[in-house]
Amino acid sequence: MQQFLRDAVEFLPILLQGVTLTIIVTVGSLLLSTVLGLVWALMRVSGIGWIAGLSAGIVNVIRGIPIIVQLFYLYFVMPDLGVSLSALQAAIIGLGIAYSAYQAENFRAGIEAIDRGQVEAAQTIGMGWWLTMRRVVLPQAVRVILPPYGNIMIMMLKDSSQASTITVAELALQGKLIASSTFKNTSVFTMVALMYLTMSIPLILLVRHFEKKAARR
Amino acid sequence: MIELRDVHKRFGPLEVLKGISASVTKGEVVCIIGPSGSGKSTILRCINGLESYEAGAIFVDGAKVDRSSPTIVAIRTQVSMVFQRFNLFPHRTALENVIEGPVFVKREPRAQAIERGRALLARVGLADKADAHPPQLSGGQQQRVAIARALAMQPKAILFDEPTSALDPELVGEVLAVMRTLADEGMTMIVVTHEIGFAREVADRVLFIDGGVIVEQGPAAAVLNQPQHARTQDFLRRVLDPL
Asked: Are B56 and B6 in contact (CB under 8 A)?
């Protein structure tokens, strides 16, 4: 135990650098996946056949390819096509795209849960499609969407560790580097696990809050 | 003001409107009665473009109702609708429900819309409920808010789709009273209803619809008191004397 505490004090600064990158990757890809997911979902419920079909196709392609392969593609293949991304950029974009599929399905489910009568009421006061979405459907769908959204946030925090495979020195990779140079596997990976857990707990509490709020109606 | 010319509408293999022709002049109150599934509500939904129709034509103030045309928005702001299940926006207060259309569709200044909205809520007897959310209101109160929301668009006509059918019996009167006031003030109204008493007292004209066609129509007293057609007689007997 004392040994662990000594190691912890020694490795903490390096691991915290990893934590910073983990947070950057998670927040960046969360924002990107939210925007893209919303676009896919709105395309899907647009009521225009080919746009809905295109959205379904995009979501299925993204869902059908492992995240790690999508990251490799962005980081190792895109340069051949003339697009060079830094490892961090590739990680944020890759995870953002990969998770946009799940975000889209969640948003779509939330939108479709809203009573059809709401859309009709909006139409009868002259609202167009976009105004109906913005003022009537989405504000109500948010309550349905938030609890699963919180779970996606937790999954994204953990899956940000996959960025290590394309050399982003986030928490998991920093841990691995320290462990392989000091052979203190137990101390290092225990710390890494505890640090992920520490970051997850606020999100878990947030999900519980969302669920309570959604249940209140 | 509103004119239907030989309107046909089908849902898949089922033809719900088989050639409806009718016209409603300004200030007129027309009640549509008939058994469920006869196509009554579908007529209203076609008039403001919630449903498309396959053949015939519908005109509102001379403009053809066409769901796929941008002119549909202008028509909808002129012809409001009140639904059986109210369809108020549950995430907004009564007042916000009323001013939503004026502020976001008609771009009326917010302060002015609020002032008008409060006056409209007072007119339907709900001045003190402006800040209540729909789930806090009774069915009758919700429907009156919905009527205020329809009026806020300053429509040329209002379509009522069974406005009292989802209400507890003791709440029906308060909604019908508001509708009667509107009729007295000269609002053009088309009302799909099972309230024969309301139709008899308020309607200028009654259409009896069955099987997607207008079976009988005429002045309210004539159709309701001396129906000529056997199907109308049968329907009225069953509605007025269910036992």
From this structure: yes
User: Hey, is the C-beta of A131 within 8 angstroms of any chain B C-beta?
Assistant: yes
A2 contacts chain B (CB < 8 A): no
How would residue B73 be classed by pLDDT, with cut points 50, 70 and 90? confident
ipTM summary value: 0.91
What φ, ψ does residue B158 adopt, rounded to 5°? -125, 135
Exposed, middle or buried: residue B109 (CB in 10 Å: 0-12, 13-18, 19+)? exposed
- Mean pLDDT score of chain A, rounded to an integer? 92
Beta strands, E only, B42-148:
55-60, 63-64, 79-82
Q: Say yes or no: B73 contacts chain A, CB-CB below 8 A.
A: yes
| Contact present, A12 and A190 (Cβ < 8 Å) | no
Nearest to B159 by CA among B31, B12, B7, B54: B31
Chain A contact for B112, CB < 8 A? no
CA distance A203 to B214: 61
Which one of A118, A127, A128 has the shortest CB-CB distance to B87?
A118
Of A117, A135, A217, the CB nearest to B85: A117
Q: In chain A, what residues touch B85 (CB-CB under 8 Å)?
A: 117
Q: Which of B105, B108, B120, B147 is most worth mutating to test chain A (most A CB atoms within 10 A of its CB)?
A: B105
pTM for this predicted structure: 0.85
**Of B243, B99, B68, the residue nearest A47 (C-alpha):** B68
pLDDT tens, position by position, A18-43: 999 999 999 999 999 999 999 999 99
Helices A171-182, A2-44: inter-axial angle, 10-degree rounding:
150
Of A117, A124, A136, the CB nearest to B76: A124
Span A52-79, average pLDDT: 94
Q: Rounded to the nearest 10 degrees, how much is the dihedral formed by the CA atoms of B210, B213, B218, B222?
A: -30
Contact A125 B149 (CB under 8 A): yes
Tens-digit pLDDT profile for residues A110-130: 999 999 999 999 999 999 899
